[in-house]
Design a protein that fits this description.
The complex is a heterodimer. By secondary structure, chain A is mostly helical. Chain A has helices spanning 6-15, 18-50, 64-91, 94-126, 134-155, 159-187, 206-238, 243-252. Chain B has one domain. Classes of the chains: A mainly alpha, B mainly alpha. The interface between A and B is medium-sized, with 26 and 26 residues.
């Protein structure tokens, strides 16, 4: 693989060794936590206190500071899982498998949060907890895709084989997500159109937009912390009998 | 043996095996009719209600019938070891897998066309929608077999993969269900259905190309 510069490939090979990754994760997690808490504080203060009340929706629009970042994360994590799945299938990198399977419950959690907050917002705004609207439906199907990944991994006992199965499933799923999304969109839609992604002129005021983006970045950091913790645990479970885990346990005891 | 011959040999072998067990072939058909029969019993026999629900009911039942028949796709080959022989053969596994999927569709998907008119009469579907119902069944049941094959390949090594299979496969069936039942619904009210049929055709063609690859990879994982 001559087209990858040597320092980069060396970095990947080092990072992908479990003991090195474990130490690295330990070193990073406190810093990530600090950044996450700062961003979360700033985002919540900006969103719940500084941002003005919406002239139509009153204060209940403020749920977007949880709802929208969670919905973004639900898609982002699935794409990350597919990328990890590709890496795991092509280079047989153990760490990519671990990251993939550690991401799944977190992604399912974000999807669930997006669904619940959306439904809480829908009750006063649309007058109903649930409508068969395009985005709600595709988010629900995304939740099922996550649950499929989690239960497939749980069902196969040999964990290396399970990781390969899950990688294949994640790749198949990521091809299908756009198809599902657009087919459901054709089928029915009630959800309000995108307000942030219109790059030229977002139809949301900047005082509401900034906290939203802060929260989005904060959620990304939360995901990093959570996935590193879960990956650490998964590594310990997989490599119970290896030398570095024993050394680690002796050091802690 | 050139690969194209191996491909035909797989189809011939699977069809022969299926015809030796004719009783099993009829099961998806009976299931299809039975599920459709349950709907009038559950929601009441008002003709207007049934006519409005007919495309959806027929398609959900077809989907469930396809789902139930999926398990036979690789199960017996996995149990008696022929799957390992296919893995060991010099031919690309994805081509052989495509042959197996086509044979499976000929046995379980195609017969659904035979009973579709009967069900349309049961539910009072307008006659003008009959042609579209057939077309969607021809285009979309192979899609169900293709997409399902990935799920079966992932779960064939498990002892109790049944429920898991439906959890894996049903979300992926959603687009097929939307466009197929949407087309029949529009045809019943006399609207054009070209868009839906074109999309189903596009999905079928891309699935024919793409599906054998992950299926082959998943089978290799399951056999090891």
């Amino acid at each position: 693989m001559s087209w990858i510069p040597a320092p980069v490939s060396r970095f990947f090979h080092r990072t992908s060794s479990p003991p090195h990754f474990y130490a690295l994760a330990d070193r990073f997690i406190p810093w990530l936590t600090v950044i996450f808490l700062l961003l979360l504080g700033a985002g919540l203060y900006g969103g719940l206190y500084l941002a003005p009340t919406d002239y139509q929706q009153g204060d209940s629009y403020r749920i977007i500071y949880i709802h929208v970042p969670a919905a973004w994360m639900s898609l982002f994590i699935y794409v990350m899982m597919a990328v990890m799945g590709g890496i795991a299938l092509i280079w047989r990198m153990k760490l990519a498998e671990v990251m993939l399977i550690s991401s799944a419950p977190i992604g399912a959690g974000f999807t669930f949060v997006a669904l619940v907050t959306g439904s809480l917002w829908g009750k006063p705004m649309w007058g109903t907890w649930w409508v068969w609207d395009a985005r709600l439906t595709s988010e629900l199907i995304l939740l099922f895709l996550y649950l499929g990944v989690i239960s497939l991994y749980g069902a196969i006992e040999e964990k290396r084989a399970a990781a390969r199965a899950v990688s294949i499933l994640a790749l198949v799923g990521v091809v299908n997500i756009p198809i599902i999304h657009y087919s459901v969109q054709w089928w029915n839609t009630l959800h309000q159109g995108p307000t942030v992604s219109k790059m030229d002129k977002p139809s949301i005021h900047v005082s509401m937009l900034v906290p939203l983006l802060l929260m989005a970045v904060a959620f990304k950091f939360y995901y990093l912390i959570a996935v590193l913790q879960a990956a650490k645990l998964e590594l310990l479970k997989r490599e119970t009998s290896s030398q570095w885990v024993k050394a680690l346990l002796e050091k802690q005891a | 043996m050139p690969i194209i011959q191996a491909f035909w040999a797989i189809i011939r072998r699977d069809l022969l095996l299926a015809f030796r067990r004719r009783a099993e072939m009829a099961n998806p058909l009976f299931f299809f009719v039975l599920v459709v029969t349950l709907f009038p019993l559950a929601v009441g026999a008002q003709p207007n209600l049934l006519r409005a629900m007919a495309p959806g009911v027929i398609w959900v039942s077809a989907l469930l019938a396809a789902l139930l028949s999926l398990d036979s796709l690789f199960r017996s080959d996995f149990d008696d070891g022929s799957l390992e022989q296919m893995l060991l053969s010099p031919h690309a596994l994805s081509v052989l897998v495509l042959g197996k999927i086509i044979a499976h569709w000929l046995v379980t998907g195609l017969p659904l066309l035979l009973v579709a008119p009967l069900l349309a009469v049961f539910l009072g579907l307008p006659e003008q929608a009959m042609g579209t119902l057939w077309l969607t069944l021809i285009l979309a049941t192979p899609l169900l077999s293709l997409i399902g094959a990935i799920g079966v390949a992932l779960t064939v090594g498990l002892r109790r993969g049944g429920m898991l299979l439906s959890l894996l496969v049903l979300p992926l069936y959603v687009p097929v269900l939307i466009f197929a039942s949407g087309a029949v619904d529009r045809a019943a009210s006399g609207l054009p259905v070209d868009a839906q049929l074109n999309i189903l055709t596009a999905m079928l063609l891309s699935a024919l190309v793409l599906v054998p690859l992950p299926t082959a990879a998943a089978l290799k994982m399951s056999v090891n």
